[in-house]
Amino acid sequence: MDNDLLIRYLEGSCSEDDKVEVTKWIEEDPENLKNYFRYLHYCSKIDSYSEY
Fold this sequence. Notes:
Layout: H1 3-11, H2 16-28, H3 30-50
């Protein structure tokens, strides 16, 4: 999965087609879901540091 697409997905700035692509990718394999949550966790850490 393309990192830029995941960032846009998490920001809510991707197209409907992109949302479908990410959703399908997440649902394809339990490992993809784990990777998605790792990425989500990582991004939330970056956001918390950017507040300082």
